């Protein structure tokens, strides 16, 4: 098997398949056509890949329960327990403003605005000190 992972858990799955010995990984963006053909030839001709795949296949076939039976058992267990509310994500119970962090954004916005006003006030005071204030009196 030749794995070319693109997204999410595919990278981990490809790494595991290579470590177990029944696959090779390839990055299609950086691999040349010659390297790819060489990799295909390697996987097709070396018996170690076939043997590893057969070993894993036998292991999966000899599982005490099939994946479908396992999933069905978990669904039945969940129904029997009343839905397992402790596994329900807490985010489903959050108010809208907390779920989308609007409370945090509001506080950050207020801090930003107050900070800008303080900086403006300080800059005005510094400029006034540096440039001096004109104490000219009006002459008629």
UniProtKB/TrEMBL annotation:
**Pfam families membership:** UDPGT
Q: Does the keyword Transmembrane apply?
A: yes
Assigned keywords, A-Z: Glycosyltransferase, Membrane, Transferase, Transmembrane, Transmembrane helix
Is the Chaperone keyword given for this protein?
no
Output the superkingdom of the source species.
Answer: Eukaryota
- Tell me where the transmembrane regions lie: 99-123
As one GO molecular function, the record gives: UDP-glycosyltransferase activity
Q: What family does the entry list?
A: Belongs to the UDP-glycosyltransferase family.
Question: By what name is this protein known?
Answer: Glucuronosyltransferase
Task: State the organism named in the record.
Answer: Desmophyllum pertusum
């Amino acid at each position: 098997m030749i794995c070319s992972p693109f997204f999410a858990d595919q990278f981990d799955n490809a790494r595991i398949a290579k470590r177990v010995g029944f696959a090779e990984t390839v990055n299609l963006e950086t691999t040349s056509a010659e390297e790819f053909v060489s990799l295909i030839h390697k996987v097709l001709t070396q018996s170690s890949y076939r043997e590893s795949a057969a070993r894993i296949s036998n292991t999966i076939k000899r599982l005490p329960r099939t994946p479908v039976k396992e999933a069905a058992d978990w669904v039945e267990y969940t129904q029997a327990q009343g839905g397992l509310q402790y596994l329900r994500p807490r985010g489903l119970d959050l108010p809208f403003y907390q779920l989308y962090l609007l409370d945090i954004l509001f506080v950050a916005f207020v801090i930003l605005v107050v900070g800008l006003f303080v900086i403006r006030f300080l800059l005005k005071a510094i400029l006034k000190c540096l440039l001096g204030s004109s104490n000219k009196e009006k002459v008629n």
